[in-house]
What does this fold into?
Amino acid sequence: MVFKKGDKKIAGRKKGTPNKKTSLWDEFGDQMMGDYADFVKKYMKELQDAGKYEEFMKHYKDLLNFFKPKMQSSQTEDVTPEKLTRIEIVEIKDEKTD
It folds into this structure.
């Protein structure tokens, strides 16, 4: 039997139930923010105090990726006269100040 659009779902996870991988990833994130946070802070402080700045920055950058995702790089197009849009600047005078 082939599933067709409009057929009722009779198997699989219920709507809104995360899959196992998502659940494990969420659990790991909770551990990183809770149980392991003090350890990571202590380790990073030790690197900084020891003057191991390159190693510190490498780990810092790696950790940042979990909290601040990389932004997608922007792309530019060649601008041709056909693609240009006319912009008109209009002065609006405020009657109260004139």
Q: What stands out?
A: Residues 57 and 70 are 16 Å apart (CA to CA). The chain has three helices and no strands.
